Amino acid sequence: MLGKLLSLLLMTTTMAGIAAIASGQSENTKGREVIMLEMAELQLPFKHWKHQRYLNNECFHCHHSTLGKIDGWGEHTAHRICIECHELEKRGPSSCRHCHPKNRKKRN
Question: Among 36, 38, 52, 104, which is most buried by a count of CB atoms within 10 Å?
Fold first, then answer.
């Protein structure tokens, strides 16, 4: 009986741990509230926490291999990840001028 109880406890604890990791709810994965994304000579403010909440802390939508890094970040990746999602969800900027206004502050 004790063996079955310990097995059940171990299985429950393991499943809870896997669920917490999969949902990305750890404080360690929260990241910064706003991140300045670098695109050529531009810096684009990105509301990281807002996106995390909207995506239910499912980090894998943007971070395919490493938390805190978007693989191959650049114009092509931004257009593939950001614009496609904004168009699909019918939310957020999806035209050039939303992210690339002519008077955007340049990086020092």
Answer: 52
